[in-house]
Amino acid sequence: MAGTMEFEADADRYREARIRAVVAAARPCLEGAGWADREEEWVGARPLTRDGLPLIGAVPGTSRIIAAGGHNMLGLMLAPATGRAVAGLVTGDRAAAEANRPFALERLARRPRTKRPATQRA
Predict the structure, then answer these.
(1) How far is CA 42 from the centre of its chain?
(2) Labelling 32: which of 18, 64, 108, 121 has CA 20 to 30 A away?
(3) Calculated CA dihedral for residues 31, 33, 37, 40, nearest 10 degrees
(4) Which residues contact 18 (CB under 8 A, 6 or more apart)?
């Protein structure tokens, strides 16, 4: 079972009440499940991007490292398409590289600040 997403500073804080809420919502849908015997309850950060799109592509400055992450809550759903995109990038498929352009890591790179001459500073 999957849970919920919360936005706060402490992404690793375990909340038993949230687990109980997920179980209560799922119980009517999955009759006969061993709810008392559940295991591996966990919490953790989900990788998010500023624009909501995943990051898929070569790490800037290298062509030998391909990153694929930042899928928000859609990692499992987007895994097949992401796998195809990564395979195309690794094999040098130009069409895959072009189709993947909206997800390139460079789009979120911070631009270096340029210093203004002292005469222009306020």
Answers:
(1) 17
(2) 18
(3) -120
(4) 3, 4, 6
Nearest by Cα to 103 from 90, 91, 89, 117: 89
pLDDT at 63 exceeding the cut of 90 = no
Q: How many residues does the chain have?
A: 122
Instruction: Assess whether pLDDT exceeds 70 at residue 3.
Output: no
Measured CA to CA in angstroms, residue 3 lies from 22, 35, 40, 80 at distances of 6, 15, 13, 22
3-state secondary structure at position 57: strand
Residue-wise burial string across 87-111, b where 16 or more C-beta atoms lie within 10 A, e elsewhere: ebbeeeeeebeeebeebbbeeeeee
User: Would the pLDDT of 9 be above 60?
Assistant: yes
Q: Please state, in angstroms and rounded to a whole number, the distance separating the CA atoms of residues 89 and 87.
A: 5
The helix or strand, by DSSP H or E, that contains position 66, with its residue range, turns out to be strand 66-69
